[in-house]
Amino acid sequence: MIQSGCDLIEVRDASVDFVMRGGFFAAKETLSAVDTVNLTLNRDETVAIVGESGSGKSTLGRLIIGDQKPTGGSIKIKGQEVRNLSRLVRSRLAQPVVQDPSSAMDPRWTIESLLEEPFRIHRELDSRDGAAIRDILSAVRLSETVLTRRPHELSGGQLQRVAIARALLLEPEILVCDEAVSALDASVQAEIVGLLKSIQKERHTAILFITHDLHLVPRIADRIAVMYLGQIVEIGSTQSVGGELSHPYTRALFGASPKIGRRQGKRATLQGEPPSPTNRLGGCPFHPRCSQAWNVCNSVIPALTATSDDQAVACHLVTAQNRAKLEMAAEAAK
Ligand SMILES: Nc1ncnc2c1ncn2[C@@H]1O[C@H](COP(=O)(O)OP(=O)(O)OP(=O)(O)O)[C@@H](O)[C@H]1O
């Protein structure tokens, strides 16, 4: 399933351009942080967004939460255009879970006050909110004893649980987890990933899981979208992405990740840096770093093309290999 049958989030040709000015006399430059991205996300589904630093993952996450306006295209949640919704409505649809929860928490407040805050913003506190807070603490497997503590008195894992609890209080449809476990130890990462999965099972929440921790991806994601210079260059099920017919960038990116990397025969490595996002080259954006690039790659932009029912790749070579494979299969079937 390349794109899920969409009933929750539909991102269509979404772009975010930032206009940059180097100095007073310097010409303006346009940085394309997200470039014509298409993505769907369903209830009960987790899509991992992976890619090197600067590939546009967080900007895509902010688009879905509504903290970033698109310069092109559309982002719909339950059929409603996100940019037209008020902040309050948006926060009931999509909530962020960030890497450093303490940065969003006033250190002077108790955990109880921090958990009451979403209700205070939305309406007057009422007696049901105490019960909702106790329920949410139990959902994130925290004891009520944390309520009287302050953020600095909790461990990193406990604090991330409080952040997840806060994000869940308004019963959002989607959690956008942006490097939400990256700062934690491996064992705590595994606990939080397990917690997110069980919350998803109980509440049917969709999760966008933005991460550099590629080893976590198979544990949490149903699908993976690989971003390079603002574009999705590969998308598909967790089983297919990184497999035989995969983008050279994906193979290089995942080459360093034993769990995913072992699916490919020879391990590729990622050489060099991505080109400047303000100075787009012609053809495939990955061609200057691709050891398999051929003539067409520096002149024609490859379209994201299905290689199977559950994978699409934007690579001329993969498209040609897939075509050859299909022709051979058809020939053999004659
Ligand atoms: N507000 C902004 N103004 C100008 N450029 C921005 C802004 N926000 C992001 N960018 C640029 O957009 C590009 C994509 O950034 P983004 O943070 O989305 O990437 P990322 O893949 O999440 O990176 P990382 O993994 O390091 O967080 C980068 O080149 C970044 O410098």
Automatic annotation (TrEMBL):
Membrane-traversing stretches: none
Major localization class: membrane
GO MF term set: ATP binding; ATP hydrolysis activity
Signal peptide: none
Annotated keywords: ATP-binding, Nucleotide-binding, Transport
Recorded topology in the membrane: Peripheral membrane protein
Localization per record: Cell inner membrane
InterPro entries associated with the record: AAA+_ATPase (IPR003593), ABC_transp_ATP-bind (IPR050319), ABC_transporter-like_ATP-bd (IPR003439), ABC_transporter-like_CS (IPR017871), Oligopep_ABC_C (IPR013563), P-loop_NTPase (IPR027417)
Span of domain ABC transporter: 11-254
UniProt-listed NCBIfam families: oligo_HPY
Protein name per the record: Peptide/nickel transport system ATP-binding protein/oligopeptide transport system ATP-binding protein
Organism listed in the record: Roseibium marinum
